[in-house]
Amino acid sequence: MVYAQVALDISTRALDCAFDYGVPEALESQAVVGATVLVSFGHRQAVGYIVSLSDRPSAKIRADHILPIQQVLVSSSFDEVAAQLALWIAKEYACPLSEALHPFLPPGQSVRVRKRTACPVDTAAHEKEDSPHTMWELVCEQAGPVDDRWVCLTEEGKSFVPSRRASRQRAIVSALAAGPSRMAELVATIPGASSVVSTLERRGIVAVESRRRVRGSAEQTTTLSSAIAHRPEHLTQGQEEALLAIREAIAAQRGDVVLVDGVTGSGKTEVYLAAIEHVLRQGKGAIVLVPEISLTAQTVGRFRSRFGDDVAVLHSRLSVGERFDQWDLIHRGDVHVVVGARSALFAPLTNVGLIVVDEEHEASYKQDSAPRYHAREVAAKLAQLRGAALVLGSATPSLESLERCQRPTYRDAVWRRVVMDERPGKAQLPTVKIADMTQEFAVGNRSIFSRDLRQALLDIEERREKAVLLLNRRGFATFLMCRECGCVPTCPHCSTSLAYHERTHALVCHTCGRSWPTRAWPDPSTSCPNCGSRYLGQFGVGTQRVEDELQALLGDDVSIIRMDADTTRTKGAHQRLLERFDASDCAVLIGTQMVAKGLDFPEVTLVGVVNADTTLKLPDFRAAERTYDLLEQVAGRAGRGDRPGRVIIQTYWASHPAIASVATHDRSTFLASELDSRREAYYPPFARLTNVVVWGLDAKKVRDAANEIATQARQEASHRDGWHVLGPAECARGRVKDRTRWHVLIKTPTNADPGPVLSACVSHLGSLAKHVRVAIDVDAYDLM
Fold first, then answer.
1. Is 3 within 8 Å of 53 (Cβ atoms)?
2. What is the pLDDT of residue 375?
3. Which domain holds residue 643?
4. CA distance 243 to 267
5. Whole-angstrom Cα distance, residue 717 to residue 721?
6. What is the dihedral sign for C-alpha 503, 504, 507, 508?
7. Cβ distance 78 to 352 under 8 Å?
8. pLDDT tens for residues 446-478?
9. Are 551 and 654 within one domain?
10. Could you tell me whether strands 146-153 and 311-314 are parallel, antiparallel, or unpaired per DSSP bridges?
11. By CB count within 10 A, which of 490, 546, 654, 696 is most buried?
């Protein structure tokens, strides 16, 4: 008999393994790895996923005690390698196995099941769950293929001449003479077309067939000029070296990693395209990850200009049906290049030869909900399991990747760094000037623009060029403050000050998303909630205020486009804003960090950073690294064409190494000081950092649970070298959505596996577990 190891879709840490079930002979052809099945567990029906098959039970249990699989609900969604990857994710990131399997399932598949009756039966028998007549089906939301009915003339119909009185037949035959047409279009343009087509079909005049329709925006094109990948006449020396290293990694078939360390505009995308062409010629496929949805239209356009319809797109802004269609095209083997955000890693592409992670330093590759994986680490494991090559590309590689390239191997894979330090053609790196805002204040300049940036913007207007302004903070003002008592309105549900949005006259919590009209905060007057004063001042600068100041400075002759979380809420908004910027003869693009990476507009000659200190002073050991990455990336948007570029960075901390290094395009100054401080403090890349976060409505129980986890973690750390436990302590955001938040930090050696150990520590919570929620964030990026 065949036995299946089934991972139950029950989200609890207590179920940390798969369970054995027998495969009835009638289901052997359907019960394969990746299939969704219905089983009995604990006297109830449960959904599960087959992760492996064997000829004998995996557990020491009598074969006659093993329950059979009752029903196969959905055919296979993933293969054996994907199942191995899910098992690794569950162990590495300390999450239930079912949560690790969810990303591999078809979009829209829900874990809920409901009864359906296969045939009419006796009512009393039907009501019994174990009745042989009771069938179950999986509930899916807006998923599944969509078929369109198409109508075409048959050979006989091509010579058919309707009578003069059959006007609708003549109209339909005339429409079909130009070629097949969708039934929906005929019905919309010719009244009564449906019944007429049925009559003509019975007479053999027309034929009706169903054709698969791929839904939505994945088929749409873009007018972005940067969305076309023109093949260069020859590659630069750096591109040639990178491509050679990638081909060697592909040939090795062991998961080797190539870090393409290329300055902004050095042509990394062309290297990716050439490498993908290489694997496609070998009959294999490729997965390409991008960090921002705003880059998807540009990136997909470039890949489709080279590979046509052999490209699928997966990201969160697609509807469930659109994602399913793209997923199904991959699953059926109709496309071989997958482009998308981090979740594209789980696409059902089995014959993978190459995985590309563009802008690999980006924090957006870290998932902030279970399973809390890092796409770079999962991609490295997937490359090993598939025997593929992994390419990491960035102008500002992460310190973790740079450190791994110093070792002979890391986790049984060879990591190699290739430098691309030149831009193709005549393009040069832009000149960078640091505007010290303390000096601007000293000479009486109270504007949000320094004198240099103000003049540079006026020059852009005069020369009819384009500029990009970065301010990593949306809204009009960072906060309101009472000028009499100093009170700052805060969210009553979160420990966060409210940002002022002038367009809507609202105070908005950027943590939970709630908002209050200023005329109703905290009562119908606009007075201070503490002392009743009418004098509430606006402090700080947001993207809305920068937009207003620019409008006053430049007038209506310059197109001013704001791109932040408020203007990109709707579907396709990123693409529409970038197309508007691309089509303008003179424009300024204002935005948060989404404008800092990947965008390629040769007409941009000026980049301005309104305040470089917004990320530099956060309570996070990665603050300096993130600031350097952001500034170097946004600086690279300038001077990508024939005209030279200029960058002006406004800051109150001009001497900081992260800012000074950007001014010279020399990373070594920043790296030297940053690595020394990281090594001394035992932070990544010299250690692994795990953040265990506890939250709940009862503040005392949250503190007690955090104390218990810290106690258990210290006991485990006491007999392990290099393990250090910090805390417990209240999180920097101590309250979110009325939940109190505490955390415990655990530092471990880079070769340690903290996930299973910390899962065991959390299991000791006992009765406290009913009152709190716990998240184990291995390789944490968000410490707030």
1. yes
2. 96
3. 431-474+543-680
4. 11
5. 8
6. negative
7. no
8. 888 999 999 999 999 999 999 999 987 755 556
9. yes
10. unpaired
11. 546
- CA 275, 80, 41: angle at the middle one, nearest 5? 145
Long-range CB contacts (within 8 A, 24+) of 399-402: 399/625, 399/671, 399/674, 399/675, 399/678, 399/684, 399/685, 400/376, 400/684, 400/685, 401/259, 401/360, 401/361, 401/376, 402/259, 402/261, 402/671, 402/685
- In angstroms, the CA 224 to CA 576 distance is 10
Please check whether residues 669 and 772 belong to one and the same domain: no
CA geometry: angle at 297 spanning 296 and 301, to 5°?
A: 110
Regarding whether 555 and 443 lie in a shared domain, the answer is yes
Are the beta carbons of 36 and 106 closer than 8 angstroms?
A: no
Task: Give the pTM.
Answer: 0.85
Average pLDDT of the segment spanning 727-750: 90
DSSP string across 243-260: HHHHHHHHHHTS--EEEE
Q: Which two tokens stand for residue 591?
A: 């935005």
Q: Is residue 783 part of a domain?
A: no
Say how many domains are in the chain. 6
Tens-place pLDDT, residues 256-296: 999 999 998 888 999 999 999 999 999 999 999 998 776 66
* Cβ neighbours of 303 (radius 10 Å): 24
Side-chain-facing half-sphere of 610: CA atoms under 13 Å:
28
Torsion of CA 529, 535, 536, 537, to 10 degrees: -160
Residues 301 and 403 in one domain: yes
3-class DSSP state of 695: strand
**Candidate ranges 77-81, 177-181, 667-671; pick with highest mean pLDDT:** 77-81
Looking at the fold, whether 268 and 366 belong to one and the same domain comes out as: yes
Q: What is the pLDDT of residues 108-166, one digit of tens each?
A: 887 666 666 544 434 333 344 444 445 666 665 545 666 678 889 998 888 898 888 88
SS3 content of the chain, % helix, strand, coil (to 5): 35, 25, 40
Q: Which two tokens stand for residue 88?
A: 């690794």
Determine, yes or no, domain membership for 86: yes
Q: What would the two tokens of residue 542 be?
A: 């947001």
Is 784 part of any domain? no
CATH number of the domain within which 695 lies: 3.30.70.600
The strand pair at 257-262 and 415-420 is best described as parallel
Strand 352-358 with 285-289, pairing: parallel
Burial 67-96, CB ≥16 within 10 A → b, else e = eebbbbbbebbbeeebbebbbbbbbbbbbb
- Out of 652, 680, 708, pick the residue that ends a domain: 680
Distance CA 343, CA 21 (A): 30
Judge if 255 and 327 occupy the same domain: yes
Four-CA torsion 339, 345, 346, 348, nearest 10 degrees? 50
